[in-house]
Structures are given as C-alpha cells and as structure tokens.
Amino acid sequence: MPPIKKSKKGKRKGKESGKLKASKSRSAPPPLPPELRGLDTEWWYAFLNKHAESGQSAPSDEGEAFRYFFRTSRQTFDYICSIVRDDLISRPPSGLINIEGRLLSVEKQVAIAMRRLASGDSQVSVGAAFGVGQSTVSQVTWRFIESMEDRAKHHLVWPNQERIEEIKANLEAAFGLPNCCGGVDATHIIMTLPAVESSEDWCDPAKNYSMFLQGVVDDDLRFIDIVTGWPGSMTFSRLMRCSGFFKLCEAGKRLDGPVRVSAGNTEIREFIAGDSCYPLLPWLMTPYEGKNLSGPMLNFNARQKAARMLGTRALARLKGSWRILHKVMWRPDKNKLPSIILVCCLLHNILIDRKDELLPSVQLPDHHDTGYTEENCEQTDPNGKAMRDIITEHLQSHEAYN
C-alpha cells in the first residue's frame, strides 16, 4: 500500500419468504452445536429485539436475519471471532463496557464492528442498536480493523502457480481466453474532508473528494491484489503505474508463468483484462477501440469484456456488502482509511473462501461507480498490441477449427 499523499492546506430466500417485520416475541432458538457452546449469543437476541422494537423490517428467518445484518453466516462470524479473539481479549480498554456495566464479549465487539462496516450507519446509530456509546463503537471498530489487518492477511495473497493454472483453466472454459489470470478495475471511495484538508489532490473528475481502490480479481471474484491510499484525482492509468503490482509485472515477478502456444505457433503470456482506461501492455489486455472493427476484433472484445467485468462485479459486490465504502464517509482519517478498505476486502474474500452467499437484497444492482464518465487511455505498448493481435488470431483459428 503506498504512503498517503499529503494534502495541501486550505443464502436465498424461499419463494414465500421475504422481508417481514420482525416480531417482538420469538420462539426459543434451537440449541447451539457443541463447537459453538460457550460463545456469547445473548447480544444477538438483545440486538434483534431492539431492532424489532424500533419497527424496522428484517428477514423473518433467523439465519437470514443474521446474514442481513452482518453479511455472514453464524459459522463464518464465529470464524472471524476466532481470528481476532486473542487481540480483543489481551488488550481490553477499560471503556469497553455496555450500559449494564459489563465488559463487552468478543462476539459483541465483532458484531459492533461488522455492523458498522456492513451498514455504513453512523457510530451513534450503531451504538444505539447495541446499547453502547459512540466512543465505544469507534474503539471497537478500530481494534477489530487493526487485528484483522494483521491476522487475516492470508485471505488476500497472490495465488501460487497451481492456483493460477486453475484460474486460467476456468477462465478459458468460461470465456475462451488462453492464459488469462483475472480482471482488474478500480473504484472511488467517496468522503467529505474538513476545509483545511480539502485540495485538488483529492477532488476527482466527478467533483467528489475520494480515495482510489484498485483490485485484481480471480474467477471467483476474489481479490488477489489491491492497491489503495491514492487520491481519486489520479487517472486509472497513473494509479496502475504507481502500484506495486505494476512494478512486479514489469520486473517479471508477476504474471510470469508458463506461456501458452497459440494456434499460430506463437507464444501467449499470462495476462489480466482491463477496460480502455488502462494502458495496453503485454500482461494487460484492453479492448480494441474505434469504428469498423473486424469480426475477429469484435469477438476478442466480447470475450475480453466478460473477463474484465470480473473486476467490476467484485467491486460492486464489495461496496454492496460493506456499505461503509459505498456511502459518503464523513471526514475519515486518510491515514486509517486504507486499513478500513483493506479489511473490507479481506471480509469479502473470507465470504468467498467459506462459500457464504449474500442475500440478494444487499447486493448493488448498479455499477460500483455512478456519475463518473469513462476514461480512455491512449498509451499502447507495441508488445502489448502484438500480444493482443496474437490472442485475436488464436481465437479466430480455434473457433474455425471447432
């Protein structure tokens, strides 16, 4: 992650289910499985009752309700608790008590933090839902973020070659592209800034103050590389060139696996797919631009678009799940914001790794960035152009043969 640039001063629902108003009176919950006994569950029923008393709607099924509020199944939630438990137990600030004067359990702390990230609601609103104060929500959320950033980073790593080969096989089966390792896209995390910190550095083309997040994703929409911390005023092309990912690829330390021999007996190296806002490079394939494109070019574009949309879909899912990234963030600490973004990406990957499904109601139906015009990067590497032509010819020959 780059250093922050200093600013200048100045599961599915059944057909008959749906969102129903939660009832104040609930039947006794089923007994917990042995592996979960001894964990704190009192906070969940207190939270649910408080939500019902407020008159707000929630899924009637308890498992779906839990997933609605915290984005995870209870089993995945308990897994996340296991990651941060040692940190949350070993360093409990004296202020972490609820209105009943008891120290907050690890489960309740994790619930508070995950609800804050999932809803994007204010600290006051989240605190009221759990019977704690605003400062407690702030402390708990940051402690959770620090612990996850340190202890869950194995959920966001560049794949080993065995996994890369699996990704390439899956993407070729799905889109026909040989040696494709994923898609890339970027999004703006919008925020407000105090007047003293506001500057053109952070003002993006849509006149919002924002911070960039770029993600490279695999066939399962899992993030395998991210870069964040850079101002939204940058172009997508410059963001890519400033990233560690770019430097590793250029140095032959990423996307450097076995080449694929094309139908024309030429080599196709590993690559990712991106939109025309990115430069055309030997390891970064962008679409053909212009009018009167040939049939093979249009065929390449269609297949390349399907691959690059992996990045777009992953970012939309990320922002739909963790709404703190989708709403306008009120005066965030720009030194801490990259950590918040990273932890949301880690949680996104954990859901995929544990095969948790999102409820359709929490997913964003639209593109992750609305109100932004498309950028078009004119930078073309001759070797990138030659590689794109080789792939296009390979697709034409392969389809003619079949």
From TrEMBL:
GO terms for cellular component: ESC/E(Z) complex; PRC1 complex. It holds the Pfam family DDE_Tnp_4. Keywords: Hydrolase, Metal-binding, Nuclease, Nucleus. It is found in: Nucleus. Its main location: nucleus. Residues 1-14 have a biased composition (Basic residues). Its cofactor is a divalent metal cation. Residues 184-349 form the DDE Tnp4 domain. Residues 1-35 are annotated as: Disordered. GO terms for molecular function: chromatin binding; hydrolase activity; metal ion binding; nuclease activity. Belongs to the HARBI1 family. This is DDE Tnp4 domain-containing protein. It comes from Eragrostis curvula (weeping love grass).
